[in-house]
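Protein modeling request. Please complete all fields; requests missing the sequence field cannot be processed.
Requester role: graduate student
Desired output: 3D structure, token encoding
Chains: 1
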Amino acid sequence: MSNTDIQSDNKEGIFAGVNPVMAIGSSILVILFVLYTVIDPENANKVYSAAKKYIASDLSWYYVGLMSAFLFIAFYFVFSRYGSIRLGKDDEKPQFGFFSWFSMLFGAGIGIGILFWSIAEPMYHMQSNPFITEDKALSLEAAQVAMRISIFHWGLHGWGLFAICGMSLAYFAYRKGLPLSVRSGLHPVFGDKIYGPLGHAADLLAVFGTVFGIATSLGLVLSK
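Delivered output (224 residues):
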């Protein structure tokens, strides 16, 4: 199968060159969440706050462990024999130089967040965080813990995750000729099943995470 296998056969119109299932499904998903938040903001706030609290309290170990695993895997790929595999075809050369790529990745990876949170986040964690008691807020110990949390959020761990996702997309799209989508990274496990409901679910989850992740970062910055 090729890139066109999950795209629409339409050459014209609103669905030209796209997969109508993904286009409609992702649009409905975003619209439903927006409508729910606008129509019932109080209940939506309770649901979102409860979800955030559950993730922070019960899944923090999973989050920290997963991010550390991504960082380890990224370093492994760099220094192992896999680090020499070209992400495109063997005869292809990079379209951009190292500095250009670094600049684009830095801008897209951190973007608006670092303009505000590079200063605000350490101050925020210094006042309150899960690793200090209330009586130690604004203390020297609180400041040290705040910096450790901020470095974890903005240090190598996040870039490890970005690198693995980027390598997966680039490898399967530009070297294997699969669609430039999250589902392609599942091809070694599920084979051609990624072109069915399983692949649609993976891409919808990716859309969900991307849209609301960006919206959260942008909203937090603009609200300050």
